[in-house]
Structures are given as C-alpha cells and as structure tokens.
Amino acid sequence: MTKNTFVLHNSHFLKAICFLAFFTMCSIGLGQTNNSEQIKRLQRTIFIHNFAQQIEWPNIANLETFKIGVLGPDRTAIDLKVIAKERKIFGLQSEVIRFQDIKNVSDVQVLYVNNLYNYDVNFILRKISGKEILLITEDYDYQASMINMVNVGDSFEYEINVNNIVQEGFTIAPSLRSHAISNAEKWKELYQSTSSSLTEAELKTKEQSKLIKAKESKIASQKNEISAKEKVIISTEEKVDLQNQRIRTLYSESELQQKQYKEKVEIEQELTESIQQQLKFIETQNEKIASSELKILEQEEFLKLQNDEIEEKAKTLKEKDDEISARTKVNWLLAALVALTLLGSFFLYRSYLTKKRLTKILSEKNESIEKQAAILESKNRELEQFAYITSHDLKEPLITISSLIGLLEEDYGSKFDDEGKANLNYIRGSADRMTQLIDDLLAYSRLGTKRTFKSVNCNTLLETLKVDLANVIERSATEIHLIDLPIVKGSEIELRLLFQNLITNAIKFTDTSTKPHIEILCTPIGNPDTDTNGKWEFSITDNGIGIPEMYQDRIFSIFQRLHTNEEYEGTGIGLAHCKKIVEAHGGDIWLDSVVGEGSTFYFTIPFVQQED
Amino acid sequence: MKKTINCVLLIDDDPATNFFNKTVVSRHGHFDKIIVVESGQSALDFLNDETTIKPDLIFLDINMPAMNGWEFIEAFEQLDEEVQEGIKMVVLTTSSNPDDYDKSKGNGIVDDYINKPLSNRILDDVLEEHFSLNVSKYE
Which residue from A193, A90, A180 is spatially nearest to A136, judged by alpha carbons? Predict the structure, then answer.
C-alpha cells in the first residue's frame, strides 16, 4: 500500500518535474526567439542609421530633419521612430515617413524596403532615380539596389552597389565600402563561421542558463515559501523589473553582437586580402589568357584565311562540277536529240519510200491511163475519120443512083405501069432517106473537127434562129418564150445547131391538135464573174408528147428513134448531135419528161471554156 | 440563034457519074463538044495535047484515086498560061465538107464550087455566071 502510495507519489513527482522541464524549455525557446527578433529589429535600425552616417549628403546643410522613408506596412518604421528619439544623423533629428506606394515616395533622404512586401526593386530604383534618395533594401539582389542588407543567422550583412550610389551623386565613406560584402561565396563562409561561433556562444549561454536554472530552482524552492506572501506586493514591481531586465539584456546582448561583428570584420579583412591575392593571380592568368587569346585569334585568322582559300577552291570545284554536269546534261540532250533525229529521219525515210513507191504506182497508172486516153482519142478520131470517109464514099454512088433514077423517071416514067411506078418511087424514097442518113452522119462526124470558141449572145442567136425557122414556127403556130439569155463562150454554129435541134424536136414531137409552147430559160450556177468552175444551166420546156422514162437514157444515142418514120420523120441523129455539142463544150445534157405533159431538156455550158 | 459553049471537059473517076453528067450536059444542049476523062492525069494529057480542042469549062471531081481534084489543080497551075487562059474551073463534088468549099474559095484557079448531082438548073447558073449566057431566056 505504502509502496503503492509512494509509487503513486513518486510518479506524480516525476510527472511534475517533466511538465516543469517541458514548460521551462518552451518558455526559454520562446524567450530566445523573441529576444533575437527584437535584437535584429534594433540591429536593422542601427544599420540604417549607420549607412546614413557614412554617406556624404550633398545638401545636408539645407535640411531641417533627416527623412527616412519606409515602404510597405513595415514595423521597421516603428523601430526607426523609437531609435530616432535617441540617435541623430549628422546632428539632425531623423523623421520616419511610411509609404504604401512607390509613386508617392519623394522628399526623403533614405528609403528602406524589405523584400517581404514584394516590391519590384528595379521599378523602385527607376522611380527614385534622380531624387537623391539612398535606397536601402533587405534581402534583394544588390545589383539592382544601392545598399542591400542580408539576413545572416541572427544578424545582418550588407552589399553595396557603388555605381548606383555614385550615380545618385552620393559619396561613400571608405569604411562602408570596405565592410560591405559582395560575393555570395563569401556570404556562405561567413555565415558558416559566424554560425559556429554563435552556436558556441549559445552553448555557453545554455550551460550558464542551466546553472542559473539549477540555482534558480534552488532559490525558487527556498523562496517558494516566502514568496507566496510577498507575491501580491511584488507582482507589479516584478513585471516592471522583468521589463527593464529584458531591455538591459537586450543591450548587453547587442554589445555581444557588436563584439562578434568586429570579429567578423577582421575575418572579412583577411578574406578580402586573400581574395585580392586571388584576384591578382586571376589577373595574371587573365593576361596570359589574353595573350593566348591573341595567339588564338591569329591562329583563327590564319585558319579563316585557309578556310576562305578552301572555300574558294571548293567554289571553283563546284563551278567546275556544275560545268561538267551541265556539259553532261548537254551531251545527254544532244544524244537524245540525235536519237530523235535518227528516229524521225528513219520514219521520214520509210514514209518517203512508201510515198515514192505509191507515187511510182500512181504515175504508172496515170501513164497507162494517159496512154489509154490517147489511144481512145486516136481511135475516136480514126472512127470519126472512118465515118466521114465512109459516108462520103457511100454518098457518091448514092447520088449517082438517085440521079440515074431521075433520068430513068424522066425518060421512061410514062412507060412504066402502076406497079413499076410504085417500085420506082420506093427506090427513090429509099435513096433519098439514105442520102439524108449519110448527110446526117457526115455532119455528126464532122462536128467539132473545126471548132472556134467565142462569145455568143444567146438572145441574138435565138432571134436569128426564129427567123430561119419562121416557116415551121408559123405552120405549127408555135409560141417560143425566152427570158433574157446570157452571153456564153462557145461555137456559134454548134450552139445554133443545138438550139435548132431542140426547138424543132419540141415542135415535131407535139400533137398536131396542140399548139406547141416552148419556154427557154437560163440560170447561172455560181458567180459568172468570179467563179471559174461555175456554169450556165439552160432549160427548154415543151408541152409535147413526152418521153417514157425507160427510153430517156437512150434517146441521145445516134440513130436512136422511138417512132416510125410514118409517125415522126427523122433520122434519130438530132439529140446525138445535141449531146455531142454539149459535151464538146464541157457541159451535160439530160431531161425531165412526163408522157402526155411535155419534156424539159436541160444542158449546161461552163462559164469558162478550155481551148483544145 | 442558040448560043453555045465550045467545049466542056468532065473529070470524074466514076463511069456511072460520068455517064450521068454527060447525059445531063448533052441534054442541056448549050455545049457543042463534051469531053469525058476518068482521071486527072488523062485531063492533063488532053490539055497538053496541042492537036486537041481547048475546053472552055472543066467540071472537076475532087475525090478521085491516084490524082485527086486538088492535085490536078496544082498540076494545072504549072501548065502554060496559053493553055490555062480562058478555062473556067468548076469543082463538082459530093463533098459537103466545108473545108473543101473554103479551099475552093481561096483558090485562084477554082471559079465555082458545085455539089452533085449536076442538073439543068446548075448548068444554067454556071452559064449565066461565068459565060453571061442567059440560057433560060432563050428557051
């Protein structure tokens, strides 16, 4: 039980100690944080004041107060106001002005900006440029600032941008410049060394505070009994004391920091020296590099020259290549051209051969045709000659027969009986008919033997023909109607015979009960003035007996008669004459006929005549 | 008094024609003497014979064998002018060939061109034309 109680009591005690220890630790931690932050705020204001002190202000004499601007909702403004009560800058009371907007910043000597508030430092620098304001930034890039403060552990370091400061017309005290840090590497080293010394100091502080705590706990436990009574009296005073104590502690700690700072400066100086040595070494290295660069440049130039030369050569090579390829192309083209030409000439030669062969065949055919035509011509002529001579020779004895029959009639006619007289009449009639046939044959074969073409006025030709045929026309009461006929090229005698035959035929082959009516018309086919291939088409229409269609193609043959001599007189040579005349003039003759209604004979005479 | 022509020479190769022509001429009654030859050569021989009578008129056939009418005329031209003088040359032919007609017209020897058959009327015309004898008026 007791043991249990003890245990219980013991466990309570342990719990209390643990809780106390935890609480103490926490309160110490809290106290430390609060303390170092307060120190830093103080430090910051001191830094700012010190910066201001180390700048040569060009018109400081004209100022009534030294104005420090703070951008943003920064507590530094409050801190600066606090310190302003105790410290002066160049003997001037400092005045703190808070700005929310960079645009409003003016009429201040120093402007402080913390990166916490996200102002663009470049923009700020641009805005305050020319206003004689010293820009102090915190945690910015010093390149864009004038003086930049950097948080290093529990303290600050700063960087200065001399160019920016000088540009504003400020002169910097050398101390400021020499204490400034301008290398990130250095910052790191510095931070490490300072933080190690800081940890040492902290460790010492912790040990001390441990001792103090141990003592305090003793004192506390001793005092605990007494203090309970005094608590009410002391409580207010204690608070004041505690406050004062804190301030004092702050001051003593600040002094400690100052000490540490001095150490840092010394380290910095050493570092700077070594850096300068390094710089010198770098400089000599740079010089060496520069000289080697020069050599490199020379080499490069030489290389460049060589390259140029190579390029030049490559260019020439390319040109030659191009030339060669062009020549190759030309050669190919030439080859293709030659091949084409050869092909073309081969085909041309082949077609030439074919043509030659065909031409030969053609000329042979033509020759044979011409030969045949010549043979035919001579045969025709022979035939005509034969017909002429034969008929002439036939005619002579016939005339004698006729003549002798005449004598016989004259001398013995009265002595013949009726049968004898009739007999004699038949002989005479036959002889006369034969004479007529021979005369016609002679005329036919003589046609065209002597032909001269000249201009023949068909109107006058027909007028004279009408006069010559007046007897027949009057006897048959024929009406001949003709409409303005042309002047044609032809043989007048033959054309006259042509019209005469056609007109007498028309009259002859008309029923005696009908009055013959003949109409003669002519129309040009083509233009008579310009058209050398044109011709005149004549038509002679009658109201005669007509010609059955089956006979129409044979009536133009010589001695072709459709009727007996008793019906219609004639030898059947008239239309043969007509055909021969028309064909001799290079024309055609044909007819349209309806039996019982009449016939129309057509013939054509070309505008132009070809002389034999 | 009946006017007559002294002598007529008939030249034709055809005896039948000659017979007919001689009959017609003799029946006409105005020719005192009728000489008939059957070729051109015979005619030339007759003309050249000084012993024979000189004809006043010749009827000449063209279409004859050996020497035709035109050849005879050429030969006739070569005769003495004395022989040629006073002879009327009449071509008597069956030819209806215009060439012969034209040839006759252009020939200085040929005085006339007559188509057969010969007849009284033709003889009348010839006498009137070439001998100024108006035969029909007499009868």
Answer: A180
